[in-house]
Design brief:
The complex is a heterodimer of chains A (553) and B (322). By secondary structure, chain A is α+β, with helices and mostly antiparallel strands. Chain A is 53% helix and 19% strand. Chain A has three domains: 6-26 and 382-546, Up-down Bundle (Multidrug efflux transporter AcrB transmembrane fold); 86-179, Gyrase A, domain 2; 237-347, Gyrase A, domain 2, CATH 3.30.1360. In chain A, strands 9, 10, 11, 12, 15 and 16 form a six-stranded antiparallel β-sheet that branches. Chain A has a four-stranded antiparallel β-sheet with strand order 7-8-2-18. Chain A has a four-stranded antiparallel β-sheet with strand order 3-4-6-5. In chain A, helix 12 packs parallel to helix 14 and helix 14 runs parallel beside helix 16. Chain B has 322 residues and is an alpha+beta fold. Helices cover 60% and strands 10% of the residues of chain B. Chain B has a four-stranded antiparallel β-sheet. A two-stranded parallel sheet of chain B has the order 1-6. The longest helix of chain B is centred in the C-terminal third of the chain and has 33 residues, at 234-266. The chains are: A alpha+beta (553), B alpha+beta (322). At the A-B interface, helix 9, strand 18, helix 12, helix 14 and helix 15 of A face strand 5, helix 5, helix 7, helix 8 and helix 9 of B.
Chain lengths: 553, 322
C-alpha cells in the first residue's frame, strides 16, 4: 500500500540536503562574495594578510557558488555592439595595393603604366594604360589570390578579380568575406575579453549574438560610457612609411596616401602611405621599458611573419623615416638607422611611465580588427539595483508567508506538509541557480514568486484528489495512494506545458527575460519534484507513525 | 474546520448561458483588438528605440521645469513622467524621461546624456541618473519581431502538445482560450496605456503557460470522466469535470494571485507593469479555461467511442498515469 522503498527515501533526503548545502552560501551573500574575491586575488598572487583573513570567512569544505546578480539588481553596464566587418575588407584591399603594384611593374611592357584609382572601401581599382594587356594583368593579379582557409569555403580563393574598361577591380570573394567575418568576430570577442579582464571586474558576460554582434555586460561598472572607453572602439597600431611632413591638415596626400596628425605636436601632420608595412595584429608582445636615455618607452616583438616584413622593409629603406601610428595619430616617426632583424623594436615618444604602461597593455591586448556600432546601451545605477533587491526581498517574503498561512488554513496538517515542501522548493531553486551559475534578475525574482504561487498547485491537485477519493475510497491509505496516482497525469501535463513556454522564453529571450525563464523553468522542475516526492514522503512517514483510521485533508 | 473558497460539492451549470459568455468573450476580444488598432500600444524603448533616463533627486519632481530644461536641447520627441511608489523614501523623487531615437544614430551618444544631465541639474542640482537605457532602431525592430515569433511559437508548441496528449478538439479549445487571453492582455495594455516592453512579452508567455495549466487540468478530468461515464451527455460530463476541479482551480489561482499581489504592492515600480500583466492573465486565464476552452469543446464535440481507438487518435501518449 502506502510504501516508499528505503533507497528512494535516502535519495530524496540526499537531494534535499544537497540542494540546501548548495543554496547555503546565498544566505551569507556578502561574506561569501568577499571570500571568493579574496581567494581569486590570492590565486593571482595578492597573498596579503587582509585577503587571508577574508578568505577564512567561509569554510573551504562548503560550496561557495553564488547566484550571480543580474545587472538590474547589481547595477552595471550593458552594451550590444555590432562589429563593422566591412572595415576589414577595406583594410585588406588597402594592404593589397603594394603587392598588385609589385606584380604588375615587371610587366610594364604589356600592361603599360599602372595607377591606383580612388574607389569604394573594400574595393581596389587599378588603371592600366595598355588595354590590350588587360588579360595578362588580370592573370597576374589573380595569381596573388590565396586559397580560402575555412571549412565552407574549401576550394575557393580569396580574391575576385575582374576588369571594368581599363581598370582592374579586385574585391574579396564571398567565401573569403565569410571566413574573414568569422575571424573578425572571434578576434573582437577575444580582445574585448582581454581588455575587460585587464580591468579586473567581476563576472563579465561577453557573448556573441547572431552573425556580427557582441553582447557585453559588466556588473559594477559606472556607466556604459566607461565600458566603451575600456573596450576602445578602434585602437589600431600600424607601422607606415612616411612620404613627407606638413603643417597643413588639408594637404592633398595623393592616391594611396593619407594625412595624419602627430599625437604630441600641435599643428604638425605627416603624409603617410596608407598601406601599412606591419600592423599591431602581428605583435606578440609589448612591455613597458626605458630607452638608452632613460625615458619611458615600449618594447615590442613581432611574430615571424611580421618580423620578416619589418626586417625586409628596414633593410630596403635605411635612412628614410617610418611612422608608428596608433588610432590614426602618429606617435613617433623615427628614421631607420639600420636593418632591424629579429622582429623586435622599441617605441619612444614623450611618454610618462604610466602612458608607456598603458600603451603596452593596449598593444598586448591587440587592436580591435574593426570598428563597432553600439546598438543598445544600458546603465543601471547600483542604488536602483539595491532598491530592487530590497523590494524583491520583502515582496517574496510577504508572498511566501501569505501562501504558507493560506495553505495551513485550507489543508491543516497536509498544508504544513506542503509548506515544508515549498520551503525546500525555494532552497532547491537557489541551490540549482548557484550550481549552474545562473543569473538572477528582477523578472527572475518575479519568476520565483510566481513559482511559490504555482508550486502549491501540484500539491493542491493531489490534496483535492485525496479529498474526492476519501468520499468513495476504502480507508485513508488507499485514498492517499489513489490521490497521488490519479493527480499525476494532470500534474505532468500542466507542468510540461508551462515548461514548454519557459524553454521558448529562454531560447528567444535575452537578458532579464532569460533570467525569468530560468527561474520559472527550474521552479517547475523543483516544484514537481517536491510535490510528487517530498510531500508524499512526509505524508507516508506521518502515516506510518500514526496509522490514523480517518484523515481530514 | 477548513477554509474553503468553494462550497464542498458544487453542481453549478456552467453552460446554461454558455452562448452569452462566449458572446461576451468575443465582444471583449473585438474591443481589445480595436483598442490595439486605434489606441496602439505604449511601446517601451525596447520596441521603438530611443532612450529612457531614470532620475532621482531630493527635490520634488517638477515635470514642467524638466521639460523646459530639456526642450532647449532639441532632442525631438520626448516624454517625462513622475514615478510614484510606496517603497520610495521621503527624499526619493523619481522621474522617467524618454527621448525618441535620434536621427541617424543607433544608440544615444554620451554627449546627449551629459547635455541632459547638465540641463536637469539646472532644475534640481542633486539630480542623479540612476539608470540610462538606450536602444537603437535597428535592434528594436528585431526585438519586436522576435517577441511576436516567441508568442506564436509558444502557442504552436502548446497546440501540438495538447493534440498529442488529447485530441484535436481539446487542442483547438485550449488554443482559442490562449488567443483570448493574449488578446485581452494586449487590449488592457493599449487601453490603459501601460508601457509595453520586453518584460511584458515574458509576462504574456507566462500567461500562455498559466492559462494552459488551468485548461489542461480541466481537460484531464474531462478525459477521465468521458471514459468513466460513457453514456452521459457531453455537457453533463463537462459540467461535472469543471465542478470537480473547481476547488483546485480556485485554490491555485488564489495562491498565485496572493503571491503576485504581494509583488505588485511591494515589488517596486520597475516590475509593476510586468506583475500587473500576470495578475490580469491569471484572472482571465482562469475564466477562459472554463468559459472559452470548455465551451468550445462543447461546440466541437469529442469522439466518445473509446472502446476501439482508431489509429491512435492522438491518445496513444495519454496513458502515463495508468
Amino acid at each position: 500500500m502506502l510504501q516508499i522503498e528505503t533507497w528512494k527515501r535516502v535519495l530524496i533526503w540526499a537531494t534535499l540536503a544537497l540542494g540546501i548545502v548548495l543554496a547555503l552560501p546565498n544566505g551569507f551573500y556578502t561574506r561569501v562574495e568577499q571570500r571568493n574575491d579574496a581567494v581569486a586575488a590570492i590565486d593571482l598572487g595578492a597573498d596579503t594578510q587582509e585577503n587571508q583573513s577574508l578568505a577564512a570567512q567561509w569554510p573551504g569544505f562548503l560550496p561557495s557558488g553564488l547566484v550571480n546578480l543580474g545587472l538590474d539588481l547589481r547595477g552595471g553596464a550593458h552594451l550590444l555592439a555590432e562589429v563593422q566587418v566591412e572595415d576589414v575588407y577595406a583594410a585588406r584591399m588597402e594592404a593589397l595595393w603594394p603587392d598588385v603594384r609589385d606584380v604588375l611593374r615587371p610587366e610594364r611592357a604589356t600592361v603599360g603604366t599602372i595607377r591606383l584609382i580612388p574607389s569604394e572601401p573594400g574595393e581596389l581599382r587599378v588603371r592600366i594604360s595598355e588595354a590590350d594587356g588587360m588579360s595578362r594583368a588580370l592573370e597576374l593579379v589573380r595569381g596573388l589570390a590565396q586559397p580560402v582557409v575555412s571549412l565552407t569555403g574549401a576550394g575557393a580563393t580569396d580574391l575576385d578579380v575582374s576588369s571594368d574598361g581599363d581598370q582592374i577591380v579586385v574585391t574579396l570573394s564571398e567565401a573569403e568575406q565569410q571566413a574573414t567575418d568569422e575571424r573578425t568576430i572571434q578576434q573582437s570577442l577575444e580582445i574585448i575579453r582581454r581588455r575587460i579582464d585587464e580591468v579586473g571586474t567581476r563576472e563579465p558576460t561577453i557573448q556573441r549574438q547572431g552573425a556580427d554582434r557582441i553582447l557585453i555586460q559588466v556588473p559594477g561598472i559606472g556607466s556604459a560610457q566607461e565600458l566603451k572607453e575600456i573596450i576602445g572602439t578602434t585602437a589600431q597600431l600600424t607601422f607606415q612609411p612616411v612620404v613627407s611632413r606638413t603643417d597643413d591638415p588639408e594637404a592633398a596626400p595623393g592616391v594611396g596616401n593619407e594625412v595624419l596628425p602627430y599625437l604630441d605636436r600641435e599643428g604638425a601632420y605627416a603624409i603617410l602611405e596608407a598601406a601599412p608595412v606591419v600592423t599591431g595584429e602581428e605583435l606578440v608582445d609589448a612591455q613597458p621599458a626605458f630607452d638608452q636615455n632613460g625615458r619611458p618607452a615600449v618594447n615590442f616583438r613581432f611574430n615571424p611573419s611580421g618580423a620578416r616584413k619589418f626586417g625586409d622593409y628596414t633593410a630596403e629603406n635605411i635612412g628614410s623615416p617610418f611612422a608608428i601610428v596608433l588610432d590614426d595619430e602618429v606617435i613617433s616617426d623615427p628614421v631607420i638607422q639600420s636593418h632591424i632583424a629579429g622582429g623586435s623594436g622599441i617605441i619612444t615618444g614623450n611618454f610618462t611611465v604610466e602612458e608607456s604602461t598603458n600603451l603596452a597593455v593596449l598593444l598586448r591586448a591587440g587592436a580591435l580588427p574593426a570598428g563597432m556600432d553600439f546598438l543598445e546601451e544600458r546603465t543601471i545605477g547600483p542604488e536602483l539595483g539595491q532598491d530592487s533587491i530590497d523590494a524583491g526581498k520583502i515582496a517574496t517574503i510577504v508572498a511566501f508567508a501569505a501562501v504558507l498561512v493560506f495553505m495551513v488554513l485550507s489543508y491543516g496538517l497536509f498544508g504544513i506538509f506542503a509548506n515544508i515542501a515549498l520551503i525546500m522548493n525555494i532552497a532547491l531553486i537557489f541551490g540549482m541557480l548557484s550550481l549552474i551559475g545562473a543569473t538572477l534578475t528582477l523578472p527572475g525574482i518575479a519568476g520565483i514568486v510566481l513559482t511559490v504561487g504555482m508550486a502549491v498547485d501540484a500539491n493542491v491537485l493531489v490534496f483535492e484528489r485525496i479529498r474526492e477519493e476519501l468520499k468513495t475510497a476504502k480507508g485513508p491509505a488507499r485514498a492517499i495512494e489513489l490521490g497521488y496516482e490519479k493527480a499525476l497525469s494532470a500534474i505532468i501535463d500542466a507542468n510540461i506545458t508551462t515548461f514548454i513556454t519557459a524553454v521558448i522564453l529562454y531560447v528567444m529571450g535575452s537578458g532579464p527575460v532569460r533570467g525569468f525563464a530560468i527561474t520559472l523553468g527550474l521552479g517547475i522542475l523543483t516544484s514537481v519534484f517536491t510535490a510528487i516526492f517530498v510531500t508524499r514522503l512526509l505524508i507516508v512517514m506521518w502515516f506510518e507513525r500514526r496509522r490514523p483510521k480517518t484523515i481530514e485533508v | 474546520m477548513r477554509l474553503r473558497l468553494v462550497p464542498k460539492d458544487t453542481k453549478w451549470d456552467f453552460f446554461s448561458r454558455s452562448k452569452v459568455w462566449l458572446g461576451i468573450s468575443a465582444f471583449l476580444m473585438v474591443a481589445a483588438f480595436a483598442s490595439f488598432l486605434i489606441q496602439g500600444l505604449n511601446y517601451g524603448i525596447d520596441f521603438r528605440g530611443g532612450t529612457t533616463i531614470r532620475t532621482e533627486s531630493a527635490q520634488p519632481v517638477d515635470v514642467g521645469a524638466y521639460r523646459d530644461a530639456l526642450t532647449a536641447l532639441e532632442l525631438g520627441d520626448m516624454t517625462i513622467s513622475e514615478v510614484f511608489d510606496p517603497t520610495f523614501g521621503p527624499e526619493q523623487n523619481v522621474a522617467m524621461v524618454r527621448i525618441g531615437a535620434q536621427d541617424g544614430q543607433e544608440s544615444v551618444t554620451s554627449e546627449v546624456i551629459e547635455a541632459a544631465r547638465g540641463a536637469l541639474q539646472g532644475v534640481a542640482p542633486d539630480i542623479k541618473f540612476v539608470s540610462v537605457e538606450s536602444v537603437g532602431p535597428k535592434v528594436s525592430g528585431e526585438l519586436i519581431q522576435t517577441a511576436a515569433i516567441a508568442v506564436a511559437l509558444a502557442i504552436g508548441a502548446v497546440l501540438i502538445y495538447i493534440w498529442l496528449r488529447f485530441e484535436w478538439q481539446f487542442a483547438l479549445g485550449a488554443v482559442l482560450a490562449l488567443v483570448h487571453d493574449v488578446i485581452l492582455t494586449i487590449g488592457i495594455f493599449s487601453e490603459l496605456g501601460i508601457k509595453f516592453d520586453l518584460a511584458i512579452i515574458a509576462a504574456l508567455l507566462t500567461i500562455v503557460g498559466y492559462s494552459l495549466n488551468d485548461t489542461v487540468v480541466v481537460f484531464d478530468r474531462v478525459r477521465e470522466n468521458l471514459i468513466k461515464f460513457k453514456s452521459k451527455d457531453l455537457k453533463e460530463v463537462l459540467n461535472l469535470s469543471i465542478n470537480e476541479t473547481l476547488s483546485r482551480t480556485f485554490m491555485t489561482s488564489f495562491t498565485t494571485l496572493l503571491a503576485l499581489i504581494a509583488l505588485f504592492v511591494l515589488g517596486g515600480d520597475v516590475i509593476r507593469g510586468f506583475v500587473f500583466a500576470m495578475i490580469w492573465g491569471v484572472i482571465v486565464g482562469t475564466y477562459s479555461s472554463i468559459f472559452v476552452a470548455s465551451a468550445m469543446l462543447l461546440r466541437t464535440g469529442v469522439k466518445r467511442d473509446w472502446s476501439k481507438p482508431v489509429d491512435g487518435a492522438g491518445t496513444q501518449f495519454g496513458n502515463i498515469d495508468a
